[in-house]
Every structure is written in structure tokens, then in C-alpha cells.
Amino acid sequence: MDIDEQPQPTVLKSMEDKLRSNLKIEFLEFIDTSGNCGSSYSVTIVSGDFKGKMTLGRHKLVNQILSDEIAQLHAFSQKTLTPEQWEKEKKN
Amino acid sequence: MSFARTGLRTLRSLPSAQVYRSSNILNQRRLISDEARKLIDNAVQSNPLVVFMKGTPEAPQCGFSRAVCQILDVQGVPREKIVSYNCLEDQELRSAIKEYSEWPTIPQVYIKGEFVGGCDIVLGMHQSGELENLLIKEGLAPPLPEAEPASKA
Q1: Is A55–B121 a contact, with Cβ atoms under 8 angstroms apart?
Q2: Which Gene3D superfamilies match (chain A) (predicted)?
Q3: Which residue ranges of chain A lie beneath pLDDT 50?
Q4: Domain-wise residue ranges, chain B
């Protein structure tokens, strides 16, 4: 089988799929911070699953879910909010 | 000598890609787990503030590492209190620290032997005032001066 014939899922799609299947997502946004090279991303995740977790814990959870993808990226940064925090931020 | 020759004969019978990958990864894991782990452990336990970064505080080699150093500077942490390790100079450290912290990116900040976070977290804590409190509490930043009256009647 010629490997070029199969459509390769992008890292971005893979990250989105994994997050949506592992977390209850209210809002999800990826920003390519590598000038559209697909090598660095900044993600904003709003999820009720973050409730009760400190920032470090939330980031570790995301790191765990996306460990394969992050290992392929040059840089990765994240913003993790609960739906309540997200509402508050939108008002400011 | 003959053992090595026998070993080679066995290795050669396996598909080469598989052999390279498995032996390389095993070697890497073993190295990271022993010496490097002890070194990192010692570094974070004996210094109240340790930053694993790309470059040095004087010459950061990455935007996120630079941001962390700038934040520490703005918080009033004297340069001599920052113990920094340049992960670009040492490839083994670069992968070892990721395994040690179970954290995939660099920079990484340790305060009093505890992993605090990377650039995002440090920036967030700086904005919320949490970082200032922590640095002052651990004697890494000078306490805030008493507020002076803006003008005297």
C-alpha cells in the first residue's frame, strides 16, 4: 500500500478529537503560533471537567490526553478554564 | 569479544528499524532513569529556585524561557538566587527533565523542590499575584515596602 495514498490525519485534528472524546468541552480553540507551520499551538479549553482542579492539575490532564501530539510539536501552550471562569472573562 | 559477535548475529536477524528503535529507547530510558534523575533531584532539592530553560537568563534562546526570566526579574528576584540549567547545551538533560517532571515542555520552574509550572502557569500566577506571594514567602523576592503616603499636606 502506497503510504501517500492514505489521508494523513493532521496533528491538529488528532488533538481536537482526543480532547473532545476525553473532556466535556464547552469551547475549544487552537491558534497556530508558528506562522501557519503547524509546529506550535496555543489552545484555549473551556470544560466543566476542570472544576475543582488547580491550574497545574488541569494542564497535566491535558498534557496526558495529548502526550503523543505534544511530543511532535515544537511548542505548546494552554489556557484552561471552567465554564464559569470563561463567562467572567468574556464580560471583561 | 565473541559474545559481541554472537549478539550482532542475533540482532542482524531482526528487521533493522525495529532493532534500532527498541535498543535505543531502552538505553535512553535506563540513562534517564538513573544518573540524570539523581542529578535533577539534587539540583531542585538543594536550591530554592531552579529554572530549566533554553539558553540562560542573560541570553534566553526561546520566547517562553525569556518570558519566565523577565517575570522573575520584574518580581524582584535577584539574579544570584536563580539557578538555571540550559537544556539546549545538554540533550540528555533536555529529555530527562521532561521525564522527571512528567511535563512535556521547557521552561520548567521549581520552587523549594516542587514543580510550579511552565511559562503559562508562571505568567498566570504573576498576573494573579500568587507568584509574588510565593516568592516573598520563600525569601526569593524582597518583601513589599510599606506604602508611603503619596503626598503630605
Answers
A1: yes
A2: Phosphatidylinositol 3-kinase Catalytic Subunit, Chain A, domain 1
A3: 6
A4: 2-137
With the CA atoms of B85, B87, B88 and B91 taken in that order, what torsion angle do they form, in degrees rounded to the nearest 10? 130
CA angle A31, B100, B132 (to 5 degrees): 65
Domain ranges of chain A: 10-84
Question: Per the CB < 8 Å rule, is A70 touching B105?
Answer: yes
pLDDT tens for B100-144 read 999 999 999 999 999 999 999 999 999 999 999 999 999 999 987
Q: Which architecture does CATH list for A10-84?
A: 2-Layer Sandwich (3.30)
pTM over 0.80: no
CATH superfamily ID and name for B2-137? Glutaredoxin (3.40.30.10)
C-beta separation of B47 from B82 below 8 A? no
Substitution target from B65, B121, B123 for chain A, most A beta carbons within 10 A: B121
Q: For residue A28, with 0-12 CB atoms within 10 Å meaning exposed, 13-18 middle and 19 or more buried, which class applies?
A: middle
Nearest CB neighbour to B120, from listed A67, A71, A77: A77
